[in-house]
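Notebook entry, structure prediction.
Reason for the run: the old model in the group folder had no record of what sequence produced it. Starting over properly, with the input documented here first.
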Amino acid sequence: MTGGTKEKTTARRRGKPIEVWVTEEEKTVISEKAKEAGMSRSGYLRALGLNTPIRSVVDLKAVADLAKVNGDLGRVAGLLKFWLAEKRGQGGDPIDVERTMIEFRELQGQIRETMSMIVYARKG
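New structure, fully documented this time:
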């Protein structure tokens, strides 16, 4: 470390360092990508060098957000179903309500697929 600042580290030294010469801009980009992945620069570069999949913290946050939307869609579809059962179609055509519920379920399936692709198929 230079400049008298210390980074928090809980990792122990693993062996010998490898020097990699980069521009200031490249160092900044590497630092940002490591932060997005929730990793140190060293850990990030090690994972890349060893071809280890790197999952972005940002991607995992997006999956959590999609899970909330998916739950909301399920609750809305449930309310529509309840309304249809209680009101026997008053104020709306039962076929339209049923079609909307089917579309919600299809959208939920698409959201689940997207979440799976992000979590399981994303590689560094």
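Summary: The first helix runs from residue 24 to 36.
The old model has been moved to the deprecated folder.
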